[in-house]
Structure formats: C-alpha cells, structure tokens
Amino acid sequence: MIEINNINKSFESKQILMDINGTFEKGIPNLIIGSSGTGKSVLLKCIVGLILPDTGTVNYDGREFTHASRTLKTEIRREIGMLFQGSALFDSKNVEQNVMFPLDVLTKIPLDEKLDRVNFCLKRVGLENTNKLMPSELSGGMQKRVGIARAIVNNSNYLFCDEPNSGLDPQTAILIDELIQEITVEFDITTIVVTHDMNSVMGIGEKIMFMYKGRKLWEGNKKDITHSGVPELDDFVFANKVMKSLKKQ
Amino acid sequence: MKTIGKYFIFLGQLFVRRETFSTYFHLVMEECIQIGINSIFLVALVATFMGAVTTVQTAYNLVSPLIPNYIIATVVRDMTILELAPTIIGIIYAGKVGSSMAGGLGTMRITEQIDALEVMGINSASYLVLPKIIASLLMYPMLVILAGVLSILGGAMAGTVTGIITPADYKYGIQYIFVEYMVEFALIKSYVFAFLIASISSFKGYYTTGGALEVGKASTRAVTDSIIAILIADYLLAEMLLTS
What we know:
By secondary structure, chain A is of the alpha/beta class. Chain A is 38% helix and 24% strand.
C-alpha cells in the first residue's frame, strides 16, 4: 500500500498540488484522473521521487520515502516499475536488452536465469519472439507492452503508469488497460495509473482519485463516478457525447 | 554564475551512488568505440591536411635566404605538437563528439529515458555521463597523438611532392632542437580538453528541457561552450606551463 500525506508542490509562484492525501491499495488498479494540467503527472512524479514535494510525505508499506536516507530510497526505488507516457525504451537497446536492463544493473543473477525471466515477462505481455527487435521497429502498443514487461521484470512491488494508453487506438488502449489490471491482480502489486481516458476509468477504475486544479476533489470507484454529485467531476466524466447520451438514458 | 554552480554540482553527482565496476567497464568500452574509433577517419583527414597546409604556408612566409629549409619542418613540428594537434583537433572533436553527446542525452531526457533510470534507483548522471568522460579521457589523447604524427607526415608529403623541402631536410628539421616537454604539454592539454568537451557537452544535454528544438539548441550550445572553454583553457595552460 502507498500512502500520501499533505503533498504540496509549487513551481516558482504557481502552486501545482495542494494538500493531497490518499491511499493506494494493493491488488487493484488505483487511478488518478483529471483534465490536462491538473497536476496528475506531477503528483505521480512526487510519489516516485522524481520531484521532491515542498511539504508532505509518501509512505511505501510504512516506509517513509520522501525524506528517507539515500540507501532506503534506492532500496525502495528498486521495487518500483514504471511505464512512461512515451514508453521510455532505450533506443540503443533491443527489446530483450530493454527488458533485461533492470536485472543487468540491479541484480547479480546468472544470464540464463535473466533470459528466462525476460522471456516469461515478454510472454506475459503477449510479445514472444520479439527479443531482437529494436524499439523503432515496434508499434506504439507494442512499445507500451515492452515498457510493462520492463516494469515488472524485477518482481516489482509497485507499478506506476503515466498515461498508459495515450496515442493508442481504442482497442489497443483497452488491451493495455486489461494487461495492467491482470498484472496487478496476478502479482498482487500496488498499481497507480494516471489517466484522463474515460474508457480506462470505466474499465479498470477500482479505486479512483479525481483531481481538479491541483486539489483532490473526489475519491471512489467506477460504479460511483457517474453519480458523484461533484459538478467538476460530472463535467469531466460527461465531456464526450457517448457519456452524455448514457447520462440521458 | 548559476550555470557554473550547477555544472560543478553536476560533476559532483557523477561520483555518488555509482554502479559496479563491470557495468562501467562495458559502458566505457562502448563509448570508446563510439567516440574514439569512430572519430579516427575525420581526425586523420583533418590532421594530414593541416600538416600539409602548414608546410606550404610556412615555406611561403620564409623568404629569407638566411633561413635554412629544414626550419620549415621545425615550425611544422612545433606548431603541430604545441597547438594544432591538441587544440584544432579539440575543436573538431567538440563538433563531432560533443554535439553527439549533448544530442543523445538531450533526447534521452525529453523521451523520459533518464527518468526511467532514476525510477529504477540508478544515478543517471553517473551511469550515463561518467563513462563518456572516462572514454573521452582515454581516447582523446590517443587521437591527439595520431593527429600529431599524421600532421607531420602530411607536412612531409606536401613538402616533398611540391619540392619545397627535401625528405632529408624535413627529417633533420623535425629532430632539430626537439624539446620533449612539448609532447608532455600537448598531452596535458589533451586531457584537459577531453574532460572539458565531454563534461560540458554532457551537462548541456543532461539538463535539456522541452522538445526536439531544444535538443538541437543544446547540441549547438554544447559545441560553442566547449570551444570557448577549450580556448580559455588553452591560454591558461600556456600561461601556466610555458612561461617561467
């Protein structure tokens, strides 16, 4: 479980995050949703330690991360897997080398074991026999899958996904969402997904945090989101015609 | 001043939370090939022509019958070792290798590859930049030595082909009043320039923000800042090591 307490963050004079509190549970996808520019990605970066919050703390299963010693921070970070918006695969490495990278750098296990683990992860994301392909030879959806395989290869306890289906067609986006959900349940990990895609929200939103102008406005799940009573959330949820027509019905 | 302070903090970051020796060994070897071996052709071409042109131009300027012909070779040797090989090749190296380093790191930054390393608990500055600096310190002095040799040979070729100087005079001239310290001085300069080019270019690339346009700008700034640093260091080293 990940717990965040009173997270505040400003860039120069502009406050991006205001007193964000919340818990993200193990074994279910936890979604952070909101329109563009509401501070979702900044919050995610504060949680993984890429940005230091001005105030507040982040706890990973009771371990305080934000102000932890360098050793503890490194230890926690080595339990983290992250899927970036643009996949962030290393251009100079092929699929196998990309997925194997965390094992190469963070572990001392023998090469054959590393290969077994890489092949297992690639099979799990549906990308068998792509080991020698370069990232430039992969489609957007395949790159995301390789990103997920790399994120879980080191038996991560925490999986973070920043806009996992941006730039993907709706069918591939659903496949990626389902894959994230399956992996979260199968490996019993704490997963946080930042998204503004309503298909994801309605598909895998077991626990949802809605952010608006740097504040947490609502928390709930996909069943409650359509009748939250929060006008800002209603504007977000029913922004497209399909959802509007569903609301009328 | 803020940028200079940030540069020194960046240098400090290279030495904390380091990875294992074997990790760096592989990375350094890759970088040596990338920045050293792949620069040989360009350096050889520039050095050979540099020596040839220096010979022809020195001969053109030495019009007095009181000055013996072998002095042409002595001038070529001294200019090559003291200035042309370390400094001009440094500028070429900054253009080729420095821009590539800044562009590569800048692209990694804007495509979140550097963030990916940080999230894994890897010190990205140390992992990505330290091997580039070490490889540069290993390869650049070798390139300077190669450039020096080829420049002197280029001078010999141009001199004998055009009839400016005989091979015997050239051979005598390059050995005439030879001071070994000049080679030491050239090597000291090459180490300093190698460090400056690799660290400044990496610094510019590592802190790129924005998109493709900013990566291009970072590459350009890496080259111009490296060249300025080379020229300042060149003067300071000459002042410190050549004047008594």
